[in-house]
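dumping this here so i dont lose it
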């Protein structure tokens, strides 16, 4: 069973429309729709925005639905200056940028007393997602570190710091919590993000206009990825 998560309705609508033999369930205030897509059993859900919502959603997928792979899809802001709106980022790893215990001598983003704070995505899923992306949007796919935090980043100085200090390729609000839960449960994951804005203060112009376009691109890649996994 493959769990597929989006934070917003726009990010899962196309997936829900493509499902066959769907069955709807509710757990922890979240709607889960199980069904089949390209012959694979999947569960599609909208986590809601933020790391706590995404973490709860991921754990339910693992515990209740026995998900053995997790795909998180949706939109993100660019940190890499080479990224343009509509480009795709496939996670090499994910890290929480808003973890800050620097006052105790830890580097930014480091979780004290944990083996890891930067969770690697599953290599096979990353490779399949890259191949799917190159198939449907050639030349528009990049692999890199996804940074997550409970903030909408819209400041050029923050973008610069996140890029320089943590090496982020894009920034969003859920992926690293999904990565952490998957790591704790030894479940493979990958995050696939389509760039909806440049995270530079122009989001009020870009975000609403390009979220639908970016979500459509995310769906196209997830759809092609599932065909490869099938």
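and the seq i came up w/
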């Amino acid at each position: 069973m493959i769990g597929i998560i989006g934070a917003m309705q726009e990010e899962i609508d196309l997936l829900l429309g493509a499902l066959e033999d769907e069955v709807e369930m509710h757990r922890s205030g979240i709607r889960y729709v199980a069904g089949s897509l390209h012959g694979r059993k999947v569960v599609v859900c909208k986590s809601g925005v933020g790391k706590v919502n995404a973490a709860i959603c991921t754990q339910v997928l693992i515990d209740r639905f026995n998900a053995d792979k997790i795909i998180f899809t949706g939109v993100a802001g660019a940190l890499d200056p080479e990224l343009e709106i509509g480009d795709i980022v496939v996670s090499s790893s994910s890290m929480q940028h808003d973890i800050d215990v620097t006052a105790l001598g830890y580097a930014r983003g480091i979780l004290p007393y944990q083996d890891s704070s930067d969770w690697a995505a599953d290599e096979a899923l990353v490779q399949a997602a890259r191949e799917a992306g190159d198939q449907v949007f050639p030349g528009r796919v990049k692999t890199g570190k996804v940074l997550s935090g409970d903030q909408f980043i819209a400041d050029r100085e923050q973008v610069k710091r996140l890029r320089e200090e943590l090496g982020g390729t894009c920034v969003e609000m859920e992926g690293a919590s999904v990565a952490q839960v998957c790591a704790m449960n030894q479940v493979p994951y990958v995050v696939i993000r389509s760039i909806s804005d440049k995270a530079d203060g122009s989001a009020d112009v870009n975000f609403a206009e390009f979220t639908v376009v970016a979500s459509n691109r995310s769906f196209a890649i997830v759809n092609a990825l599932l065909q490869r996994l099938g």
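The helical segments are 13-18, 51-65, 123-136, 156-166, 175-185, 203-229.
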